[in-house]
Amino acid sequence: MRGLRPQAVAARIGEIASGTARFADQWPTGQDVEILPLARRALEEVGMRYLFSEDAPTLLPFASQLFLAREVLVRPSRWAWPRWVPTPARRFRTRQQVAFTNALRPIVRRRRSSGRLGDDVLGQMLRPSSRYGLLREEAILDALPGITVATFETPSRAAGWIMLHLARYPQAAGRVAAEAALLPADPAATTSTHLDSLRYTQALVREVLRLHPPSWLLTRRATRQTRLADYTIEAGSTVLVCPYTAQRDAREHSEPDRFRPERWLDDSGSPAKPGVFLSFGTGPHGCEGAALAMAMLTLLTAQTARCYHLSEPLEPERSYRLTTFGGLATAGLRLRATLRS
User: Positive or negative CA dihedral for 253, 254, 255, 260?
Assistant: First the structure.
């Protein structure tokens, strides 16, 4: 998708930086705070602004309900209902998708009728492409609910793990803060050059994603019969791929269970090999929003570390609950922020 390509993200780094800076600005100091809701709201606003620009405030409440519907749908249940059964969770999701679509439809029609398509992701979808031509209205409306939630759902889970590591590894957090000190005082003035200069911060983000990939289990379908180790995989079979275990493979990563961001700064290191880092998927089904997610998470990490020292509650084992439904997450994570001098 054109609007999510790395060059498109690079052109809008100032907007992304402004949005992620609000997360740091709004964090209460001197008290234990549950941070995932704060991170989600901040990243939700960044993602919505990136997708819809000035129309984001209109659509934001509907996007929040879409996220809630997704969370309700993946909660554990005593019963494994067939996909065709209209359970309450599935009906709730359908209602929220319809509400989002109904709010988006007049925006699409207004932009097309006025000719002011916009330079955001929606604007790019409204323009004809060499591959697909002019997309039908229904194709756009069908695609955007999923894209919208994906823009902030997985990054929010990743943000929890990143903040936890900033708290547990103060020396690494200090190194991030030193890099972030060179960012412009006005976040809107941040450019892709500034983002590229945050080399250690990006390494820290990638290392956290390696150890704790939010999308810890992926599915793929074999298009032809193949051999995998001593097993024959028949065409049409569903294969489960686990980035959590694959990214802790000692054959690819030295000291695989150790948090060591420096491994990503070594150009000769194994993490540069294709297929070794799977947190955004790989191949033709890799995440199209990887560049946007990395920009959001890198700037969120840098701006937080520049402002604060983070710490866990006095009983760290009770600071969060590990959940795996829908993604690997630090449910209920509570941290304390104190101003960094």
Answer: negative
